[in-house]
Amino acid sequence: MRIVSLTVVHNHARSIGKLIDSIERSGFENAYFCDAASTDNSFEILNQSKFSSNTITNSTLYGFSKNNNDLIRAFELDPDYFMLLNPDAYVDSDVFTKCVEYMDQNPDVGVLCPQLYYPNGEIQKSWKAFPKLHHGVLKRLGLRSITDEKIISSGNIDWALGACLVVRRELMLSPTKLLDERYRLYCEDVDVCFNAKVKGFKVVGTEEINVFHELQESSSVSIFSKYNYWNLCSMIKFLLKWNLKYVFRN
């Protein structure tokens, strides 16, 4: 198995059908879904799709990392590459083939980050420099958003939004864990990319592969939201985990 996609769904009935349709049109078979305690009809949509046999349900609302790792464990997935794909994204028909080809041709790339677009065709500012602490605080206070961030050119980047990341198998944390389960939500994408750099791999953004993403920025809706709280917790856990390696990074 060369590549699999992993998608965690939680009350995404409005958008998940679009992703499923785009994957089906590509002819891709190795798409896996975890329904994370949805209370809308997300599970019914998944269960009626061609990927029903590739779907698990967690009745408890676990974190994003655990839900993805549960998919790996449940189906004993062992591909060359994992694609983390958001439920509010959708893809071009050749995206999976292009990702495999790129990773095969560039063994020094640990994480591949396709160009993200809003549904209206506008480029999404998804390629980023590693965040500074004061930027994170401003964003959590509602004083900074993605629209305030500068566009990072393609090529070697620090990290990218986790709406679509292709991660090399060598970056797994264990035979059954791709993501650090200490993060409930947020910072997983930064963590994956920083881990790649620590292990000597490149993180690359490419304009050759396109993915569409209906960005929600849930944690920016209210500074008192649970999403904002989870984000702050994840930031603290990230800094405690990497400490001086992150502070004195190149």
From TrEMBL:
The Swiss-Prot or TrEMBL record annotates one GO molecular function as: transferase activity
Sequence ranges assigned to domain Glycosyltransferase 2-like in this UniProt record: 8-129
- Gene3D superfamilies this protein is in? Spore Coat Polysaccharide Biosynthesis Protein SpsA, Chain A
The keyword Cytoplasm is assigned to this record: no
Q: Which UniProt keywords apply?
A: Transferase
UniProt xrefs under PANTHER family? RHAMNOSYLTRANSFERASE WBBL (PTHR43179)
Recorded protein name is: Glycosyl transferase family 2
Q: What is the lineage of its organism?
A: Bacteria, Pseudomonadati, Bacteroidota, Cytophagia, Cytophagales
